[in-house]
Amino acid sequence: MKRKLDANDVPSTDATGGENEAQITFESLPLDPRLRQALVKENFSKPTLVQSKAIPLALEGKDILARAKTGSGKTAAYVLPVLQSILQRKSNDLSLKETSALILVPTRELSEQVQRVIVSFSSFCGKAVRSVNLTQKVSDSVQRAMLADVPDIIISTPARVVSNVNNSALSLDHLRQLVIDEADLVLSYGYEDDINALAKAVPRGVQTFLMSATLTSEVDTLKGLFCRNPVILKLTEAEDEGGGISQFAVRCAEDEKFLLTYVIFKLQLVKGKCIIFVGDIDRCYRLKLFLEQFGIKSCVLNSELPANSRIHVVQEFNKGVYDIIIAADDQEVLGTKKIKKTAAVKNADSNEVDDDAEAEIEESSDDEVQPDESASTSNKKQKLSGKQKDYGISRGIDFQNVACVLNFDLPTTSKSYTHRIGRTGRAGKTGMALSFVVPKEEYGKHKPTSYPTAKHDEAVLSKIIKRQGKLGHEVRPYHFEMKQVESFRYRMTDALRAVTRLAIQEARAREIRQELIKSEKLRRHFEENPDELRHLRHDGEIRAVRIQPHLKHVPDYLMPSKGKQGLMAEDSQRHGVGIGKTSENRIRKARERNRGKGRRGAVGKKADPLKNFNAKGRKK
Questions:
Q1: What is the pLDDT of residue 616?
Q2: 390 by DSSP, 3-state: which?
Q3: Where, by residue number, is the motif Q motif (predicted)?
């Protein structure tokens, strides 16, 4: 591996997937046989780029600062060296008890994800490796009992670690390895004070891993606090982020966002699992209530929901139980941008701002969206709220087999856009990103559906096109045949009229009450009664608006003569937007079929004869 010194005389490696180097395999790495066995079980055939570069260096004891795209395998790149180090120390003394590894993450969802990876990789290690996730919602006494057993690995947000260190429940005296995952988000999520406290508590000489999707000034701050001459890996794969993703932009009026969303999902123009990004939590419920009018089921995911519910939604979505998630990613879009801009400007005089930080400054120019004009003039760092601090959708969470990302509300920066579309097209698969863009002349014409940041959609889109162009990707225009779509407008208007502001507030409150019950009181019950898990479904109707059954069916007279293809302009048909799904949602179909059988068996009555005849009087 070729290494070179950067401007600060620090070892640095710039790598691409096309280098003519000896192919590194998991068999060629000095890993414990139990770890190799787990890798085979988890179908890890060969290391990804970040794994092949980082693992050998980590096993040598080097500090590592790695930048690699979302979904590139960064978690395994640090988990395997951590497990290997623990197994080596315990090879002669299995009774050794010391907390030797601390993994810091910005969100609860990511901590659960890391914990699952550790459990799967250590599945053949027996009791040699013990890990604890401190973000679990348990009482302080239970958490102290978990720490009293002195686990080998701690996974947590910085705040939880500091709290347990301060009350003497956790000791870091024997710490040997420190990992900060999604390092560029940790400070942005309001953990600055906790990180500074940890920097004093962590012993000197600890091996450090900083894993990030971007190298910002905040990562540079963490490097100064914890690292000793780290090897910097700036990894660019042959097919960078968004490479396997077809990207399209649809210019439409504000109310037409709802019209096109109805057409896309009701007529299944896009098939497969989809994540819809909206601007804030109210928009989540407005869109969910709107889709409910047409019998289209969806889940809501935002920082207001209990952590257990959020984690359960993601797990069920990955299993294929739900097809549509409506996500409010407001803290990624609005919360971190000004913080990053401030940090980048602060370091500008010292010539330590890298390309990513400069890009942040460029994105935060005058024509960029400023959600709070008075706050944007302040140089003070702004912390996120408690709910937002430990939550993020577009980064970290491992959504699997997402066919489409729909930017219902365009993000306010091109970097946020890149992270959002990174939810699809992962692990070499293809995906699609479809973004609604409101032209400047259409902004504010439909007050009930207007959203403030849409005023700057065209300016943001131009930055997105420029950024994606530098990466070698194209954002193509997509056109619907609006004359054919117009026939559905009266249905859209009828449904949208029922989704009032009061209905949204009631739905939001009811959803929280329901999810709190599911998250807390019924958790143990469903662990013992898994067959009743259907009661924990998150895509049920909230029923806060007037139900109109006729809207759930699309009459034949509304369909264009050419069928679904008639809704798309000819140039858009050539792009091949539709992503075919090989099968229906088997889990959902099976559950509904079994429930139906149960009802028929329980009610020993004959079927209603009136339901078996059509208007002509013959049996169906």
A1: 58
A2: coil
A3: 24-52
